[in-house]
Amino acid sequence: MKNTKHDNIVEFQVSGSYALFSDPIMRIGGEKCTYQVPTYEALKGILSSVYWKPTFLWVIDAVRVMNPIQMETKGIRPIKYSGGNDLSYYTYLKDCRYQVRAHFEWNENRPELSADRIENKHHEIARRMIRKGGRRDIFLGCRECQGYVEPCVFGEGTGAYDEVPALTFGLMYHGITYADEAYSRETKGKMTVRFWNPVMKSGVIAFLPPEQCPQSKTICNMEMKQFGAELQNFSGLREFGEVT
After folding, report:
1. Nearest to residue 137, comparing CAs of 63, 45, 235?
2. Which of the listed residues 17, 82, 175, 235 has the most CB atoms within 10 Å of its CB?
């Protein structure tokens, strides 16, 4: 199940007791209910917590569902915007384990960081951070769903849906394209939300790249954050001695 198209592929397993993957619009208030499988944006966020630089963009190639899809509903007392507490029911995925395969591509919207486009350096750092469990805390969709990352070989081991030929999930949230991730004239200077129709084949969901998603909607105008050696916010890129 190897993908030889890219040389900077990373493979890892992420697991946790609970997960909540959903469209952010459905999290504004009231009840929260998870999708049955991880979203592209959630897995991209996990990988960004492992290792991220504005020089490149993580692209999620595929996810393999290892454990049976189970759900559990909990009574939660969230804080109300007007003060005090409320009572809501959140539906989580339970006992989650996924194998993920991804690669990175240079962010063409960041020409000012072209000197940092050293593929082997970023690839080796990412692999090392996966072995260490990530630079920042890992969450499976929501802050209360702690996750754990470790290296794996994508396709190894027995998955719960290896013998299921195909399983569809209908129209599903794919992710958000921010201004600094724009891939077309329509997405430049805007925040855009994407949707698609995932199909799991033998336990594996192969993700469409953002630019191939069949449906999208512009949310608002958005400006890119600027990075540069003369800007104070660039100093963080030197924190680990990775920029010359």
Report:
1. 45
2. 175
CA distance 219 to 177: 10
Question: pLDDT tens track of the chain, all 244 residues?
Answer: 444 467 899 999 999 999 999 887 766 667 889 999 999 999 999 999 999 999 999 999 999 999 999 999 998 887 777 777 778 889 999 999 999 999 999 999 998 889 999 999 999 999 999 999 999 999 999 889 999 999 999 999 999 999 999 999 999 999 999 999 999 999 999 999 999 999 999 999 999 999 999 999 999 999 888 765 554 444 444 444 444 3
- Residue pair 21/42 in contact (Cβ under 8 Å)? The answer is yes
Tokens describing residue 54:
């504005």
Note the Cα 174 to chain centre separation in Å.
10
Q: Strands (DSSP E) along 20-137, which ranges?
A: 32-33, 56-65, 71-76, 88-106
User: Tokens 């195909």 map to which residue?
Assistant: 166
Q: Please say whether the beta carbons of 33 and 22 come within 8 A.
A: yes
| 228 vs 222: CA distance, rounded Å | 19
From residue 201, how far is each of 65, 71, 102, 103, 158 by CA, in Å?
Answer: 10, 21, 18, 21, 14
For the four alpha carbons of 19, 22, 25 and 31, in that order, the dihedral sign comes to negative
Nearest-Å Rg of the Cα atoms of the chain is 19
Q: How far apart are CA 124 and CA 240, in angstroms?
A: 14
Read off the pTM: 0.87
